[in-house]
Amino acid sequence: MNLNKMNIDRRKLVKLAGASLATAGLGSALGVIGGCGDGASEPPAPAPTKGVMGKNGKRVLPWSNWSGLQRCQPSLRVAPADEAELAQMIGQSKQAIRFVGSGHSFNALVPTDQTLMSLARLRGIESIDKPAKQVNVWAGTTLAELGEPLWKDGLSIANMPDIDRQALAGAIATSTHGAGESFGSLSSMVTGMRLVNAEGEVIECSADKNSDLFNAARTSMGTLGAVSQIKMQLTDALKLKRRQWIMPFEEALERVDELRADNRNFEFFALPHTDYVFAIVHNETDEDPNIENRYSEEDSYETFRMMSEVYDWVPGFMRHRLGNMAARTVEPETEIGRAFEIFSNTRDIRNNEMEYSLPAELAPACIREMMDTIRKENINIVFPIEYRYAKADNIWLSPFYQRTTCSISVHQFIDRDHRPYFDRMETILRKYEGRPHPGKLHSLSHKELSLLYPRFNDFLRIRKEMDPQGKFLNDFVSKLLGVV
Ligand SMILES: Cc1cc2nc3c(=O)[nH]c(=O)nc-3n(C[C@H](O)[C@H](O)[C@H](O)COP(=O)(O)OP(=O)(O)OC[C@H]3O[C@@H](n4cnc5c(N)ncnc54)[C@H](O)[C@@H]3O)c2cc1C
Fold first, then answer.
1. Any residues with Cβ below 6 Å from ligand 1, and which?
2. Does 194 lie in the same domain as 205?
3. Residue 450 lies in a domain
4. What's this model's pTM, rounded to 2 decimal places?
5. Does residue 483 fall inside a structural domain?
6. Are 137 and 146 in contact (CB under 8 A)?
7. Which residues contact 440 (CB under 8 A, 6 or more apart)?
8. I need a labelling partner for 58 at 20 to 30 A (CA). Which of 127, 175, 178, 470 fits?
9. Residues 403-452 pLDDT 10s
10. Range of the structural domain that residue 113 is part of
11. Are 233 and 133 in contact (CB under 8 A)?
12. How far, in Å, from the CA of 69 to the mean position of ligand 1?
């Protein structure tokens, strides 16, 4: 096999394997277990494009999430202009309301056939407290909109996820996080919030005021009311140097404690069917930025799509050989830039994703078992598996609640059936005491979740106080929380 013909150059594999989103990868789920099967691919259902006529005579467009897996036809879509209108709309609504940020969650948090409410018009920075290094932000502001203005005031978000398209309230609702064991999720950086409950009342919370609500609201999956404003703790403006390189899987596991301790941010992408990982570290620097094309439109999709199709055809031992050959072509790379430019990338390959966070000390054994299983069972997947540490917090429904964790995530192309691969990996991730990412795919019931989160019942108590009639529920979150 001529790898050059497959167009596997370093930049594309980097993009695939790492720097970005859950990255690309060649993934093929055909015959997920046991080689090249006939494949039960499941392209997302075609979107209804016309929408329906709303009661006010205006057309209501359908909604779908980033990956297209989740779709719905709301009967009403609203976007209040300010907090007063938000409170009025919620207080007067006779039907259920689900909130939407940027639609980047993979599971069915958002879909509703009733009211879909966006806070995209509640946007921008309200105030900055430079001495305290804190910012007050309207909930619909995207992470991308915060980088430049904070930088101008000498401030940065200390750690970020691998994209910046999320609305701040959406990111916080699911404990969105980056990599690095000294840093918690974005939710853990929140120091205060304003929420509108089901009665349309505005309630403030922080560690000192309504502290139970604060511990529940920092990861609420949109079930406690509309978050209108968020106060966040920041850090001094940061420049970071990113180094990324291919290293043997065994070496990565042997050196994992050293790498996580010695670097500000450390993560890797394990490359299925190979003996390698793609490692990424970030450290603070004073050197001049050299980052270019941060939101490069380069299309790695075709390359990896092609590779996945090759994987469909070749026998298992060839996947290993081809994968190793491709991995060895990847050159190390160093980039320097402002933190918000370095942390977040574009994702031009649409995928579905599942992620579990497990006790940090169990993670090396877990990823080894996942990689061994893929190899032994000849699972046809090329998408790299993402491996990132995060700091413990005290947020009731956070996957990081009271334990330092390592989050491991798996991905699949949107037009391939993710379920057989995700189901197989989920049994392993659960064996190692994993807690699912609140915004990604998983199969846990409310009983299973309640055993993983010691404050689950406290969360349910706060939910009932904020929304006694279940105005903020849809089928998915009702089942998840066990609320009838
Ligand atoms: C390409 C890609 C890369 C990703 N990378 C990462 C990553 O690196 N790390 C990580 O942890 N996750 C990651 N995610 C997951 C993503 O960060 C979360 O799912 C996040 O919640 C999405 O934010 P959103 O603004 O799109 O929210 P949505 O998906 O629109 O909504 C998420 C939840 O927030 C609620 N919500 C939204 N706005 C409000 C509001 N104003 N008040 C109350 N509730 C509200 C919604 O009801 C819903 O329950 C990624 C997802 C994608 C598609």
1. 21, 66, 98-105, 109-110, 119, 139, 161-163, 166-167, 169-171, 173-174, 176-177, 221-222, 226-227, 347, 437, 439
2. yes
3. no
4. 0.90
5. no
6. yes
7. 105, 106, 107, 353, 354, 355, 409
8. 470
9. 999 999 999 999 999 999 999 999 999 999 999 999 999 999 999 999 99
10. 52-118
11. yes
12. 15
